[in-house]
Design goal:
The protein is mostly beta strands. It has a domain of 69 residues. The strands form two sheets. A four-stranded antiparallel beta sheet has the order 4-5-6-7, with no helix packed on it. The chain has a three-stranded antiparallel beta sheet with strand order 1-2-3, with no helix packed on it. The termini are far apart. The relative contact order is 0.11.
Length: 158
């Protein structure tokens, strides 16, 4: 019974022998995808030889790079404009131009319609001045109250 029902074939593959596994090296990411432009400080002039760009390299924390500083390897920040930054090797032509995403549009809404009453604005509170007490005239048959008299200043003799 043993030989007739035996599996015929190469058992080395079933047991893991003879397998050759090849791991393909991960392709290097494209240079432009390694850099993300998050902000720029650029002069109004169009020369591009001054300015600062806030760039994240390989998904790390962003850093501020001045025009002419080295980003990674032989790549240098070549110029900065109002919405872009150019990266290249040395003084050659820019290899990568990074651009800021377009600004988001302003939020819009509706003003209240005529059916919704607007609460009135309260009037400003002004402080009230208390009136000064007035002397009360004496009743008939009463003696008037006398004010305490201030002592007269002493006369100076010379």
């Amino acid at each position: 019974m043993g030989d007739a029902t035996a599996v015929r074939g190469d058992l080395s593959r079933l047991l893991g022998g003879g397998l050759v596994t090849t791991t393909a090296a991960a392709p290097a990411p494209e240079a432009s995808s390694r850099f993300k432009l998050l902000g720029v400080v650029a002069p109004r002039s169009t020369s591009g030889d001054a300015g600062v760009a806030l760039i994240a390299v390989d998904g790390k924390m962003p850093k501020a790079f001045v025009v002419g500083s080295r980003l990674d390897g032989d790549l240098v920040l070549q110029s900065v404009s109002l919405r872009t930054a150019s990266i290249g090797s040395g003084a050659g032509a820019p290899a990568i131009t990074l651009e800021l995403p377009p600004p988001t549009s302003a939020a819009t809404g509706k003003l209240p319609t005529g059916g919704t009453p607007v609460p009135p604005v309260p009037a400003p509170v002004t402080p009230q001045v208390m009136p000064q007490p007035q002397p009360v005239p004496p009743q008939p048959g009463q003696q008037p109250l006398q004010q305490p008299q201030q002592p007269a200043p002493a006369a100076q003799t010379q």
